[in-house]
Every structure is written in C-alpha cells, then in structure tokens.
Amino acid sequence: MLQYERFEKIIDTLRKQPSVRVVDLVPILDASESTIRRDIAELDKEGRLKKVFGGAIAIDADEDPQARKVNVQRSDVNAKAKTRTDEKMIVAAYAATLIEKGDLVYIDAGTTTGSMIEHIDCYDATYVTNGARHAIELAARGFRTYLLSGQVKASTEAIIGYDAADSLRKYHFNKCFIGTDGVDQENGLSTSDIEESMVKTEAIKRSEKVYILADSSKFGLVASVTFAGLEAGTIITDRIPDQSYQAHGNIIELKRQ
Amino acid sequence: MLQYERFEKIIDTLRKQPSVRVVDLVPILDASESTIRRDIAELDKEGRLKKVFGGAIAIDADEDPQARKVNVQRSDVNAKAKTRTDEKMIVAAYAATLIEKGDLVYIDAGTTTGSMIEHIDCYDATYVTNGARHAIELAARGFRTYLLSGQVKASTEAIIGYDAADSLRKYHFNKCFIGTDGVDQENGLSTSDIEESMVKTEAIKRSEKVYILADSSKFGLVASVTFAGLEAGTIITDRIPDQSYQAHGNIIELKRQ
DNA sequence: ACCGAAAATGATTGACTTTGACCAACATTG
DNA sequence: CAATGTTGGTCAAAGTCAATCATTTTCGGT
Fold it and tell me: Choosing a second label site near B117 at 20 to 30 A (CA), which of A87, A153, B12, B224?
C-alpha cells in the first residue's frame, strides 16, 4: 500500500472516530507499527492530526468530537431541507393529496418526501418507508407505519442496500413517492448513492402508480447513478424549466408561469 | 483505551451530571481507580473539572466564577441525590464497555439501551437495533448500523411485531442488550407490550451472550408479558435491592452498597 | 534490462511512559 | 471511636516510543 493511501486511511478513520490507537491501525493498514508511527508523526507535523501517546486524535481537540460529528451530519440533512423550501413544499403538499383510502403507500427517504408527511391526512392507508425519521414522524402522527430493514445511512437517515431492496419484495404498493437528485432527458432519474438507487428501483418496480417528486432545480442535473428512466412514473414539479421535457407528457407542473 | 478517550468520557459524564465518583467511573472507563485518580488530577490541573474528595465535579462555564467557588465548597459528591437517570446511565455506560472488536451486537429499543449509544466507542463492530431513533443516532456517530423491518410503534419508536421478529432470524449475534420493564423472582423478565416481547424473545434466542439492562427500580416489578426467565442472560444493574436475587448468580451489580 | 543510490519498510532494542495493585495514612460517617 | 471509604506514594508489569539496522522497493541513469 502506498504511503499516500495510508495517510488517507488514517485521516479517514479519524473522520469516523475521534481517536485511534496505533495497534488498531495495524490490521486496517496492513503495515507495521513502526511504519504507522512514522506516518502519524508525519501527519502530526503537517498538522492533519494530533499525535498522542498510544495513537492519534482528530484535529480540533478542544471540541467534543462526538457532539461535533453528530451536529455536522444533522446539519447535512438540515441544510438540504432548508434550500428551496417553498418549491419543495408545493410539490410535497400536492403529492400528499394523491393518497386515497385503502392505499398501500411507499414513501422514499429524502427531504422532499419528508415534507409530504405533515400534509398527509389519510388515516385509512398503510405507509411503508425507508426513511427512519419519516417512520418516526408518521407513527407519531398516528398512521399505520412500516419500516424497511437494512443498513442505515448516516447522512440521509435512510435504510439502504441489498437488504432494504430485498425487504421491499413482499409489498405490492398502490402508490409510491420517490425523491430524486437529478432529472435529465438523456440520463433519466439519478441519485448520488448506488445503494439508495437499488431501493428506489425496487420500489418503483413494485408499485402500480409511481410519482417522482422533483422541484424545478433538479432538471438538467445528473447524479452518479441512474435508478429509472423519465418514463418510469409521473414527475411532480413546481415548474418545468425547459419545455423540451414536456414531450414526455407525464409531468405535473404545479406553478404555471 | 487512549488517555484522551478517558478524558473525554469523564468530561462528557460531567456534562450530564454535576458530579461523579471515582468508583462510578471504573465501570464506565474500564480502568483502575488509580488511573482514574491520575486522570482527574490531570484534568483538574488543566482546569477542565474540579477534583473533590471522592470524585470530581463539573465546572460550569456559564456560571459566574465566584459563585462557582461557593458551589465547590458546598458541593459534596458523597451527598448523593442521584436521579433514576443517573442509575440508568451507570448501567448503560457499563454495558457499552462490553462491546468488543468484531462483535455483531443487537441493541433493543428503549430508554436505557438508548443511553448506551453515547458511550459506545467500538467502531469495529456492527450494530443491529429495532429502535428507529437508536439507529439514527448510531449511524450519525459513524457506526455500521442495521435496522429491523416491521411496524413502527409510535410511543417507543420501536419496530415491533411478527415482521420484526422474523427479520431477526437471519442474524446470529455475539451480544445482545435488552431492556426490561420488570425483573421478578417468580415471573422473570417482563414488558408491557406483547409485540415488543416477541422481538425481545427472538433476539435473546439468537445471541451468544445476553445482557439485560435493569436499573434497581425494576426489581420486583411485573409487567403484562414475560419474555424470558431470569436465567436468560446476565442482568446488569446499579444495585440489587433484594439479596435473594443473588442466588441466580448472573447479576452484575455496579454500585456496591 | 541492469545497476547502484535513495527511500521505504519491518524487526529489534533499550529507554521511557502508563497502568494496576498494594498499602499506610488520612477523611468521613454514624 | 470504630468502621468504612478515599488518598497519594511506591513498585512491578505492561505498553509505547524513538533510534538503529538489515532488507526490500523505487527510481534515475546507463
């Protein structure tokens, strides 16, 4: 392994935990204690971590690193939630009205779909979601709520991966509401996480009616992984920025210019 | 554990409670009294806490330093007016130290097990839980976290019922940490919700080592549904109120009378 | 492709630091 | 005042460190 790789792995480890011991790094880096000590000494000299007896601690030691980490990740979610609030809310509020008596509904994790929850008023329906926080809110509001199993992704509080996609297989939804990071003519609907995309794809496959929630800022964007084509469902948006998308015909534009 | 980690944990403990005794820190830090005394002496020298006879007290930054001095004089660790939360915290903090490298750990939903999370420092382990809030917190702190599938109970934010118990069946845990509403000689371990009890029973069945977290107030109580006998696992408590329980032999009592 | 210098690595070692156990002295409680 | 809990000092054991050296890898020059 390259010295550079070890440096990155050490720094990366200290991003995930406040401190690390030399001996704990041995199996991670597959290098001798001597080498790791030299690495830590070098990184300390560069000011990228603080060397202490027995190991190293992440820089900015004054702060409580645990609290800091939680705050950082929470603010990830919060920051995204605050951007384009109005547009998202218009989209979310309309989507919520589509839920009808007796529906089995899937609600994708994400900020836009999360905004739906406060607008939902159909108690004679069952809700399934992969958003841990969504599930808590839905249950607190008295809706019959089910959560998927699987790994929890910290930044979005979503259940993702193979396990989550697999636990979707028992359901046959009437309607599903899916968020997206990008809507593009050529590349369809895309998201930044491949494990999230697996869940979205599976949910779409298992639903009679598919609604994609995308505020106008998402058009023209392409994220890492395409999880479906534009024709996969009905796109709900506040405004279509580019008329060429209308050729698809399955777009609901809420705020006509 | 690095000296730095102990420092942080001591300071962290003092953020949650105004004072702490040396002997109470032993199970939390998994270090000897000698070491903890040295740590407290060092932290006192750095001005991050105030060393007093028997333990340490927090230095409240918001307070007027003059007033603080008065408090220092008056405040006596040995005049312990501990609340129930303190007892839960002692139990939870100790339980967290039991998690080791490579473990596959199950953490039951509930407040006592929830208190464990802030004390967990083993990043080389995998965590499975049926607590939606627990999963969010664990993931936010950077732990590899999995959530069970199933219905979400609003009042406890727990995933419960047949589906949850079923989704446990794929796992084989090294350790599980289970909360309980009652610990009784005759009626064993009990909880108030039959659907929660199903999950607890299944988790216990699927774990090599079983830890029951029960602060001293739980002894002698019987809730609606028994989910296991007293012999099902090791009971961790702050204090055993009735010596007759010691006949079972698998009880860890953290706070000697 | 081959060579030799330079750099990186892993093992070893003696010095140094930290830790836990012990204990006699001291403080607190009832 | 007796019983109990706490303290700081000492010591041996365990853990960690930096320095050193032999070996391996990398790299530039031929």
Answer: B224
